[in-house]
Amino acid sequence: MAFYDTVKLELGRHPQEAAWKKNRTARAAQVTETLRYRFQLGPGFTAQLRQYVDELFRFRARAVHPDGQWVVPNYRPELDSAVHPHLVTFSAPHAVQARALTLQVLTQLIARAKQLARPDADTGWIKQGSDELDRLNRLYRIPGDDQPAYPTAPL
Asked: What is the Cβ-side half-sphere exposure of residue 143, based on CA atoms within 13 angstroms?
């Protein structure tokens, strides 16, 4: 709920919000559609964004509502042991990948906001967001990782 509320607060409500409530539209779809609508995103980037947001919500659900059933452990060679799949899913390599994907998606959205900004608009939030993303990209850069973490379709 907080993710969508933040998107809605920062970018404005989507015209279909009442219908979403009535139809119980998935929150991930609401977030994606609001970003698509507000940033005037094309279908290629929107499809990738939807995939990313869906995955983000699935990870959140697994973390917040773990399944209590017994599962077959996954072997981890670095530990020479089998561990619960959550310890694989929420491991450092996956966290690094999630960070890279998130920063890339946000970088593309900020770039789109720059494209759409009117000359007379207050764009301080765009500059601040861009500066913060630059800082985070430098701070969390992985040496030798020059490839985009996420496919880059035209916005």
From this structure: 0
